[in-house]
From TrEMBL:
Top-level taxon of origin: Bacteria
Entry keyword set: Membrane, Transmembrane, Transmembrane helix
InterPro entries documented for this protein: Perm_prefix_1 (IPR047928)
NCBIfam families (alphabetical): perm_prefix_1
Organism: Promicromonospora iranensis
The protein's name in its UniProt record: DUF4153 domain-containing protein
Residue intervals passing through the bilayer: 100-121, 127-145, 152-173, 179-200, 220-244, 256-274, 286-307, 319-340, 352-374, 386-407, 427-447
Length: 448
């Protein structure tokens, strides 16, 4: 790998463009990138500098639209083949079956960790407090194996995992206090950010790798929901069938099946995303185009609700919590939409809809912030209010600058790339705020 940051940035941009050619699979992209790097290395040895070598190598790779069409012609049945659980590569499938074995082992390991936690602690609140620590290390372990990272990298990542474990289990939380729930929920956000470092193969500063992780997160959610729906149907049928013959299946379900299946499904879903990326990527643009206008309507309805509630002090606390959840949903939809967009495509109607979505979210965020500040002035600070206020401020900055960049893009002042870079470079702000809530909030609010 080159040590030239500018060259790496150029290769990342090239890779991002290739990823948007739907007919080219992830394995094909990896092979093309390796070939590109080899050509750059060969050309630099002849005396060309990195920029010249990159331009010449890309030219030799050919027109990507033509490459995409050629792949589509040669692999017209690829979509159906990708739906097969285990593909058949050139090595006879041994590598894929080995990976499947690793994935199933990690899935079972995550289930054992959760089950052991339930048996060891004997307290559901303690298990839920540590659920991220029990499951996400196995997901990180899969990417350590998948990306062939050294054991030193894996060991280095154990340090922040261990520190979070100490904070969550040594702090004298009030079992009925707010800081316990806040620390447990925000620790998952911090841990998810740590997994991104492993997912990126150590190249966590790369904008393209961060956007890959955004795309991975969205696709993981889709696969996990599909698995959960399928599993829910099977469990419901099993409960109904055994209930008719007088067998109580619920104890087995609660004690064994759920502790193993739920965390195991997350690991399996991650493997499916890695193995079948192009299948879901074809769905992503459809999902974003369906849910963006629906979300705009929902935000406008919420603004109408705010307008009819009277004073900001009269806004219900549960409604404010719901608003925060909606804003987070909008953020996820925005990120997933941007990750699925071709950055070289000209502005279109959907870009206008996205700007409307962001502006509507900004309006809801502004009203929510005003209501929160009014309640804080009237009733004083609390851990929940401070956490919600901080999240809304982080969201406000993110959405406001996204709107500004979108206006510039629609007016033709700059390309789409700045919008994409802003998303990836601002994401660490959420992980930073999550760490503040986990580490600093409990002692500040007396662990209550």
């Amino acid at each position: 790998m080159s040590t030239n940051p500018q060259l790496e940035a150029q290769i990342d941009q090239w890779r991002g463009y290739v990823q948007r050619r739907r007919a080219i699979s992830a394995s094909d992209i990896e092979e093309m990138e390796d070939h590109l790097r080899e050509q750059v290395t060969d050309l630099t040895r002849t005396g060309l500098d990195d920029d010249e070598a990159f331009l010449v190598s890309v030219k030799r790779m050919g027109n990507l639209d033509e490459v995409s069409r050629e792949f589509a012609r040669e692999h017209s049945d690829r979509l159906w083949k990708q739906l097969v659980l285990v593909p058949e590569p050139s090595d006879g499938g041994a590598r894929s079956w080995r990976e499947l074995g690793v994935v199933l082992s990690l899935a079972v390991g995550a289930g054992i960790a959760v089950k052991t936690g339930v048996e060891l602690f004997g307290d559901e609140t303690v298990v839920m407090r540590n659920i991220g620590l029990l499951v996400l290390p196995f997901l990180a372990g899969y990417f350590v194996w998948k990306r062939k990272l050294t054991w030193r990298v894996g060991a280095a990542l154990l340090v922040p995992f261990a520190l979070l474990a100490v904070v969550l289990n040594v702090y004298p939380f009030d079992p009925d206090g707010s800081t316990l729930f806040l620390a447990a929920s925000h620790s998952i956000v911090a841990l998810w950010a740590l997994v991104s470092v492993v997912y990126a193969g150590g190249r966590w500063r790369s904008d393209a790798r961060r956007m890959d992780y955004v795309r991975f997160t969205g696709e993981l959610a889709i696969y996990f929901v599909l698995i959960a729906l399928g599993g829910g149907v099977l469990i419901g049928l099993t409960l109904g069938t055994l209930g008719l013959v007088g067998v109580d299946f619920e104890p087995v379900l609660e004690s064994w099946i759920l502790p193993f299946c739920v965390p195991g499904a997350l690991i399996v879903a991650a493997w499916l995303v890695e193995a079948k990326q192009n299948v879901v990527e074809n769905i992503a643009p459809v999902l974003t185009r369906v849910f963006t206008p629906l979300t705009i309507v929902m935000l406008l309805v919420f603004l109408g609700v705010f307008a009819t509630t009277g004073g900001l002090l009269d806004v219900d606390r549960e409604l404010l919590i719901l608003m925060d959840m909606v804003l987070v949903l909008v953020l996820c939809l925005l990120l997933y939409s941007i990750s699925a967009r071709d950055s070289l495509a000209p502005p279109g109607l959907f870009d206008v809809l996205q700007l409307v979505l962001v502006v509507a979210a900004l309006a809801v965020d502004a009203v929510t912030l005003s209501a929160m500040l009014t309640r804080i002035a009237e009733f004083g600070f609390s851990a929940n209010k401070a956490a919600a206020l901080g999240l809304n401020l982080v969201l406000l900055v993110h959405l406001a600058w996204s709107a500004w960049l979108s206006v510039g893009f629609l007016r033709g002042k700059h390309p789409f790339d700045p919008i994409e870079r802003w998303q990836t470079r601002y994401l660490p702000a959420y992980a930073g705020w999550a760490l503040v809530v986990v580490v600093i909030f409990p002692p500040v609010f007396a662990f209550a």
